[in-house]
């Protein structure tokens, strides 16, 4: 079982060379934010992740949350760790100063959040959901709700949740049955929600639930859903937690992984009704909730990167220590010297570097939108956020399944044994392609709202930018082979876009049939684009005599490996897209 060490060199490389964080901060007027500050923040976060959170990961897996007389009892050690997390100010990193936040860029928060999720994903889900609640209230809450709840959520003194799913309403939110009845200055909420992450615990003195429910006069479907704040404890006249609200966890789900994260069945209104307060306008709750959802979707993509990094570090250490081969002189040597083990490790490493680049570049687009000098520039960057979000969520989490599986494979038979910890990362990763919208839902969003709805304009702009990188590779001597590989992948991306735009109108089943292949092709292409940009910057730094030479040379190798071994997958995905929906729709339901 390996220790976790934050890969600060790669994170700082992406922030400095791809995001160009210092330049952005100067242009945005964030004069107090620079590379030195960010490095210090990452170093402190790395220490907390390595020394405090990572050791609790195995504890959470084997001694997960339990439901007791007081409600959910979190994993032993989690409360103390959370107290240290709050005392150090980590929950407030990117929040607005008006609510006690530090107002740092979103991309810096994303880089820090990778550390929490790598160290202990089950623990990190709690502050992740709180960040989503902060976003929803900051954008849609009334002044009174913001004043009552945001300071405590931003400080981490209270935590937040997202309550969407019901037993008969999973991804189909139109089927929600939870009710909200007006009662004076508030509403009485009744109904049951399932799969509520960190829906209850004892680490803070309040839990703030954001709950979707229907008003009595609500129209049918998703246009009749409203959003409510439902605190675990009602606030007294001084704004402090007082009487227990009629909201409680009635059971915990028994899961494949992330055992340290309590996944609750929440019951609202079993007695007199749970007191709730409307967020935003009546019947507009879905729009409010999607503020949380879009934040969460990029965050879940980041989890795919984070758990892959943890699996890679463990596999690398095992490969260095596991003696298997025998030399002619009788001495033993570690399995990292076997070519196939090296191939698997390099595939993990190259995949992770591409994932990290995409996650941080996408996070930076959120900042560029927020700090844009005018509405047109903001709209352009928001379009890129919209386009990249389903790719980040879908591709990174799907790739995490492969990367964590390779981690088990490198361990051989020992990978299948729980004591090594390799299987834990594989199990924990499995939920990522499901929650906050399955890969299929992300793919439908990408082909529908993000491509067909705007006639491919957003995607076309991204493809043109990738084309500029191909041209730069072609003009740089050492990168001719990578230029060809990225050029061929770009051609596949353009052809996939053409096939979708031309075929979807005539074939109603086409978009749904090709959507996941379309998303995965887009992911591999974006990864190749950013690895190519990384290679160009690494080469430039080497020629200038700057930076960590060993790290930069390693970056050139992983970029070349990605181009040789992973970019060709775009061709197979294009072939599947070209095949369309015919074979997929050929069988009747009874023939399956």
Automatic annotation (TrEMBL):
Residues 462-587 form the Acetyl-CoA dehydrogenase-like C-terminal domain. Pfam families: Acyl-CoA_dh_1, Acyl-CoA_dh_C, Acyl-CoA_dh_M, Acyl-CoA_dh_N. PROSITE patterns: ACYL_COA_DH_2. Residues 284-445 form the Acyl-CoA dehydrogenase/oxidase C-terminal domain. GO terms for molecular function: acyl-CoA dehydrogenase activity; flavin adenine dinucleotide binding. Residues 80-157 form the Acyl-CoA dehydrogenase/oxidase N-terminal domain. The keyword Cell inner membrane does not apply. Its EC number is 1.3.99.41. It catalyses: 3-(methylsulfanyl)propanoyl-CoA + oxidized [electron-transfer flavoprotein] + H(+) = 3-(methylsulfanyl)acryloyl-CoA + reduced [electron-transfer flavoprotein]. Its cofactor is FAD. Keywords: FAD, Flavoprotein, Oxidoreductase. Transmembrane segments: none annotated. Residues 162-268 form the Acyl-CoA oxidase/dehydrogenase middle domain. Involved in the assimilation of dimethylsulphoniopropionate (DMSP), an important compound in the fixation of carbon in marine phytoplankton, by mediating the conversion of 3-(methylthio)propanoyl-CoA (MMPA-CoA) to 3-(methylthio)acryloyl-CoA (MTA-CoA). Belongs to the acyl-CoA dehydrogenase family. This is 3-methylmercaptopropionyl-CoA dehydrogenase.
